[in-house]
Amino acid sequence: MTTEATLNKPVKPVQGITVRLVGDSGDGMQLLGTQLTNTSALLGNDVATFPDFPAEIRAPRGTRAGVSGFQVQFASHEVHTPGDTLDALVAMNPAALVTNLADLPKGGLLIVNEDSFEDKDLKLAKLKTSPLEEPAMENYRLIKVPMTRLTKEAVAEFGLSVKEADRCKNFFAMGLVYWLYGRNMDATLRFIHGKFGDGKSVIAQANEKALRSGWAFGETIEGIGHSYSIEPAKLPPGTYRNIMGNQAMAWGLMTAAQRSGKEMFYGTYPITPASDILHELAKFKNFGVCTFQAEDEIAAVCSAIGAAYGGKMAVTTSSGPGIALKAEAMGLALMLELPMLVIDVQRGGPSTGLPTKTEQADLLQVMFGRNGEAPLPVLAAQSPGDCFEIVQEAWMLATKLMLPVIVLSDGYIANGAEPWPIPDVSKLAPIPVNHPEHNNNPDGPFKPYMRDELLARPWAIPGTEGLMHRVGGLEKEDGTGNISYDPDNHQKMVNIRAQKVANAAKLLPPQQVIGPQSGDLLVISWGGTYGACLTAVQQAQAEGRSVSLAHIRYMNPFPSNLGEIISRFENVLIPELNMGQLRLLIRSRYLVDAVGFNKVKGKPFTVRELVEKIHEHSKSPSRSPARA
Amino acid sequence: MSIALPVLKADDFTSDQDVRWCPGCGDYSILAQMKKVLPEIGVPPEKTVFISGIGCSSRFPYYVNTYGVHSIHGRAPAVATGLKLTRPDLSVWVITGDGDALSIGGNHFIHLLRRNVDLNIVLFNNRIYGLTKGQFSPTSVEGQVTKSTPMGVVDHPLNPISVAVGAEATFIARSVDSNVKHLAYTLKRAAAHKGTSFVEVYQNCNVFNDGAFAYAQDKATRDDSTIELEHGKPMIFGKDRDKGIRLNGFNFEIVNLAEGKIKEDDLLFHDEKAPSTLVYMLSRMRHPHFPEPIGVFRDVVSETFEEAVRGQIDEAIAKKGPGNLQKLFMSGDTWKVS
Ligand SMILES: Cc1ncc(C[n+]2csc(CCOP(=O)(O)OP(=O)(O)O)c2C)c(N)n1
Ligand code: SF4
Ligand SMILES: [Mg+2]
Fold it and tell me: Which of B54, B69, B330 sits opposite A471 (nearest CB)?
């Protein structure tokens, strides 16, 4: 089943390629993109992806609303974004073409399925004439491929129905793309035979044939003079796999559970883009993971509170709308001082907003969206692979401080993929958790709110003799936990709960600065914009500008050295996919005149627009050479 | 050699907290009966957990010396589900009110019942919002004058037992705060049932809805306006036990036994395992047209939620072996960089 690929045409080595595959949501673009990503990663390239799908599950075929896309950048150097500038666009129908063409620069390679530009297809895309006939097409290296017909011919021998044969055309397209970029077909062939049955399945055989025909087409078609090659990237040594954000989140949770010797309870309610964490965890019952699909988000978070009271590692996840519903119960968890994780995979808001698009606009919601003085630690993942790390850090904090901890992700990270160095599980340090067995009060009943040096209370669990105690959402006396309406006690408890959150900074590493430790401009970023901000800052640094990056993973409390870092720079620029939420926090906390770069279009930042902003807010290198 | 096991008393379940209900409130009686039956049920205090929402009734957990969570309004069923699912070894009670369970928490209530989590839920029905000082509740009767309905309630009330039948609860019962023997018996039956046990207790709020259940509480009227359900027994009621319930077509009718024309055998015999249609009909028997049934409406056996959930976990472990993270991480396509 190995690839007998022949390469008769010349091969042009390049450092990196950015391709976008677009088609109808029924055309399997996500599958195609994922295969291309995995294959590129297996070839040793660094990869970053951006799947972009419509909110409708199956919008009418061929319409603009139904266009689904997948962009991937693979390169011989480190990449942190799915790429700004397309080298190639593969469009399966007119709707996909016209909605994406603006992103293909002049001279870019444009591959289309010309069989899908008939009158009826144009009508579905609300077009009067074929875009392929437009003079603007001369700006691109247009390759018209009769994919439907060629696929049909290629798979004729298998006696498939018209519909089945037509479905194979995405593998034909894939074969052509694989040929073009020198991608090895083995992993995809393994995938085809795994998914569509063993070697005897005609569907599997037909898809294999379509894939190979696409490859052969590249070899023979006159319009393409050469293919490309991309050397492996120099990543740190180790064993790698590709990982998506939500998958990394699920695996990180399972790892945190194991490190703390806990069974995991996962209570949730389906919502895009968080549901895949549930789908992933539901597969791993043999790890002792108990998933509970509750009747709504309130029940989900409350069930997690119940499990936490019972001594389990309790987790609940959602996206913005669901987090809003959980707010009251998060306040309860905070009052009960129980450890648990609340994960918010952000999407475009407000209300139902842009469910399948990315945004970072829940920061203030998770910071302040609860009644009363109700601070909680907030951590934010910076990349797909980082989701694995951050939930473990969050669980460590939650257990040490006896508090719910919030973790932010976003749609871009959740569905994005990157190569992930597989950790040696045996080398991961335990997360120690302690449940008291003896009464801490020689003079009376157990005191559930007695505190240690971090102000954490003991996690006494039901079933333990002699430690019976009641907890609740009413204000309680410190120590005994008895209901208390005493004014001074309330002040004291509010202070204690705030101090507990502040104490998290003692358990977390200080803020790192990428680039010079002082200078002209400090870019402060957080969450999923890490890759784009890093790339932009590195580009500006290469131009000789005095620009550094502080990417924050700990949103509350801020790292204790952050204020001091900020004070070492002349200017501060905070790019965010919201209207300035982190900026508001930074400005009020450090009284610094930070400027924002804000975008809410449901799309990640491009490196180009970030570099432009950095240029605007930093001195050009001729006037101020970069300090080392 | 026999070991003398310590015998638990009601006092062992009394916490050090002062009870803060209004004097004369029906909640006192429910607390007293609960503390009386807990030792008889035999689960030690450290294995018992009371979980409540918000309301006068929901202060209950503070007064019993077990583990307890006084959660938020309406959500106790969800908290309890998370606890019981992960700690099947515990005996879990949910204490709730008519507003807590049927208004703000209505969703969780029906889902708890349909899932059949093995716990007991006791709904203190006083047909009023007590803690917020006297607004109408989902069980307030039409026309009831409350602080928020000076011209009378216009909502149609919810019938908690009918809701429970609709959600296919496996144990459904009703009792009355002042009928202490019956209440104690009903709580014990609830504890004995495996699966979700739902007990509605008619509870007098003497401050905001005094006498709402007088017909079912007063010695003078209660025998004629309630009927005690007893499994396998004919449905007879009345001070002189001279009236009965007979099935006539698709309806119940009250028949007179004194005249001798109708025999006990002609009556409906209560069956706790009867199809839910019949249980539903029982739940629709409303004062003053019918005597209201008290006792166990339904007690059937069905797999509990936690058995099913834990069962899948055990099955997965038996089939695949206990999970191995390293193996999982290394599964699928990987590559080495040296
Ligand atoms: C989210 C929320 N909404 C409203 C309230 C106010 N509240 C507290 S108890 C209650 C009604 C309680 O009625 P019920 O459940 O019948 O209990 P009772 O006091 O009658 O025992 C209300 C509306 C609250 N505590 N929380
Ligand atoms: S208000 Fe009513 S229900 Fe509440 S404690 Fe007083 S009497 Fe009891
Ligand atoms: Mg009430």
Answer: B69
Residues B144, A386: Cα–Cα separation, whole Å: 59
Domain membership of residue B321 (yes or no) is no
Is there a contact between A423 and A392 (Cβ–Cβ < 8 Å)? no
Please give the CATH architecture assigned to the domain spanning A519-616.
Answer: 3-Layer(aba) Sandwich (3.40)
Q: Do strands B236-237 and B243-248 pair parallel, antiparallel, or not at all (unpaired)? A: antiparallel
Angle (nearest 5°) at CA A298 between A292 and A302: 65
Q: Whose CA is nearest to atom 5 of ligand 2?
A: B21
Instruction: State how far the Cα of B165 lies from the Cα of B278, in Å rounded to an integer.
Output: 10
**Ligand 2 pocket test target in B207, B210, B213 with most atoms within 8 Å of CB:** B207
Is this prediction's ipTM beyond 0.95?
A: yes
Looking at domain A11-229, what is its CATH homologous superfamily? Pyruvate-ferredoxin oxidoreductase, PFOR, domain III (3.40.920.10)
How many structural domains does chain B have?
Answer: 2
Least CB–CB distance from B82: residue in A187, A237, A306: A306
CA distance B183 to B174: 8
Q: Identify residue A610 by its one-letter amino acid code.
A: L
**Which residue from A618, A371, A446 is spatially nearest to A519, judged by alpha carbons?**
A618
Mean pLDDT along residues B163-176: 98
Residue A624 is encoded by which pair of tokens? 């101020």
pLDDT in tens, A228-257: 999 999 999 999 999 999 999 999 999 999
Residue B96 Cα: closest atom of ligand 1: 15
Task: Give the global pTM.
Answer: 0.94
DSSP strands (E only) in A445-531: 470-472, 519-526
